[in-house]
Amino acid sequence: MAEIVRMPKLSDTMTEGVVAEWHKKVGDNIESGELLAEIETDKATMEFESFQEGVLLHIGVEKGQTAPVDSILAILGEKGEDVAKLLKEEKASDAESVEKEDSKPAPTPKPIPVEVKPQPSVSAAPSVPTPTVSSNKSFPSLDSLNSLETKASPLAKKLAEERGINLKFVSGTGTDGRIVKRDIDNFQGSATIQGQESFVDEPVSQMRKVIAQRLAESKFSAPHFYLTVSINMDNSIEARKAINNAINPSKISFNDLVVKAAAVSLKDHPKVNASWYGDFIRYNEHVHIGVAVAVDEGLLVPVIRFTNEKSLTQIGQEVKLLAQKAKDKKLQPEEWEGNTFTISNLGMFGIDEFTAIVNPPDACILAIGGIQQVPVVKNGEIVPGNIMKVTLSCDHRVVDGAVGSAFLNSFKNYLENPVLLLGKQAI
What we know:
six-stranded mixed β-sheet, 11 helices
């Protein structure tokens, strides 16, 4: 008997999917566990294996097409089996669902009282003749514009046409203000540029659709507030240099130090390591930090699990691996789900300071700017210092200002005294 294979829900935020590739065609035998198709979700392109077996009788979504979750992806059954009845029943079921939804009575709007005031009498105004407008919508040529009510010699007109100069902007020095050749030669204004407008329309990808939806929901439903602090990175710079010399050829980045400092600070301030779920607030005892990675179609957030328990080198290696998988669209669900806190670092792109939108259901996101050499006061003297500005975006439904400030102070302390980090975990 024929069975429907439906579009699977391959991520927690997936509402529709795109068939990137079919690995089978109609008429092929399918075994349970055999690769059927590749499906593009909002986060990655994932291989989809069939849970049924039989002959592929019908493909419901062609390559490159989009379909909602639970719609007909394919139909499997016995060779030669008719699927028309099954498709008809599915269509009728969809139509019935739409009909039920449409049959719900719309709320009756309350009438709005309108005050009617008597209008003053107005005497008839004399009729005004309506001007006639030509239906010719073609634009006049530059030559006709130049000749319109403009005194210029034939040579001046010819030169103006060749050089793309509108004579309306040229001052004449000839008799009675007539424009002559020298006026064209001496004209310093901008030539009339006749260019062609062009653009490219690009369909919105599944990833971009979901990013837009989730960030819009977060920005407009969660009451954001922002806390910014400046961190002196002099000691972190020296610590990183010493660590990299000691563990050569492995290297750690400033971002690895940032992730580690955030993870340790979250254990110190568990109220920041929280998630909003509408009816309740979840205070997470584990630390899973999402690290935002820019890809061609938007932003992905792979997750470093149990971040506080990992060393700097482990964090660095995992961030590099997951970032590459994100760019290749090879992330698996367990690699992008479950974050309790998010970090977005734009310092490597030359950004000094910015604010980020909270990544739901997280309560906070930390925006990292670049390290800038600026004058600082140390021991009463102005000396060069390496300053990094970071901004904590908070969901005020979960985190208050004092709680967010305490977290930032701890984070700052760890980066300005990185030896404290090393005491928490070996390199």
